[in-house]
Amino acid sequence: xxxxxxxxxxxxxxxxxxxxxxxxxxxxxxxxxxxxxxxxxxxxxxxxxxxxxxxxxxxxxxxxxxxxxxxxxxxxxxxxxxxxxxxxxxxxxxxxxxxxxxxxxxxxxxxxxxxxxxxxxxxxxxxxxxxxxxxxxxxxxxxxxxxxxxxxxxxxxxxxxxxxxxxxxxxxxxxxxxxxxxxxxxxxxxxxxxxxxxxxxxxxxxxxxxxxxxxxxxxxxxxxxxxxxxxxxxxxxxxxxxxxxxxxxxxxxxxxxxxxxxxxxxxxxxxxxxxxxxxxxxxxxxxxxxxxxxxxxxxxxxxxxxxxxxxxxxxxxxxxxxxxxxxxxxxxxxxxxxxxxxxxxxxxxxxxxxxxxxxxxxxxxxxxxxxxxxxxx
Length: 377
Description:
The protein has helices at 28-34, 57-67, 126-134, 152-162, 170-176, 186-203, 230-242, 261-278, 295-310, 319-327, 355-376; strands spanning 4-13, 21-27, 35-37, 41-42, 48-49, 78-82, 87-90, 101-110, 120-124, 141-148, 213-214, 228-229, 252-253, 258-259, 340-341, 346-347. It has 377 residues and is an alpha+beta fold. It is elongated and about 85 Å long.
């Protein structure tokens, strides 16, 4: 069967020295033929594939209603990652280029079968692309900005950058960041190391969080076990990294911008293993049955980690037992699965993942720890 080649007038933009960028148009019905959506998921080996969030049905429906109306102005274009197989032929004559862009014809080879993989990927505008595929206005001209990049790393990098105006879900960004190897904006760069550590905690066999962290790629079958939201764990790690009193702050070298990630990982494994061992009846349960697994519990115990682990050498063979001994001081005063927090005057299941309850519970745990420590001295 002969392949179909789609030809469109295009501009090649002189922007990046090695990544070609083209601006062209497609008819609404052609968008679905050319590009697919890379849904975020994981393969059998646990490797992250894709990067797009799930379809927002109401959002798509609203766009579709507009596209199907009588008079449509649709300047919101799409950004696509194009395959290396695309061909660009510049127009003849010196007037085809002005030093910033070159006019010509872009050729995209389409698959022979509707079930075959499409040659391009939607990097930005997936909800719009879904609506365009369903509109009655099939010949509506749609503006496309396409850059040639078959590797997922470049696509993810661009996906994160173009979605800074309308922020992506925090947990989606958290899961994608470890897979991006290029230089990131300062705000995203600060979140990358915590995201990498959460990734390790969820997959390393010696981690007490192995398989317990819920992420955008978590499948329906895995959700019964994935009881901890990655946002809470990531934020707890960020606080320990960025606060001068945080457990991880001493392992940041601010003069050369390096971090001792191996030691930080060991501290995390040691501390949270001790938490699991101290509260076995509350560990691994859904947040509705255990506030230890809830955002308020993860964040508050994360703040207690700063005080507990500051006095423990993570390289010591006795570190885990020392952490258990420290946490034993607060264990009788905790009500993760039943009862009422006495000083807080609140039932265990009414604690919420909001700033007030996180601060109140953190303060309570730290006060009890300091009081019990003083008694034991």
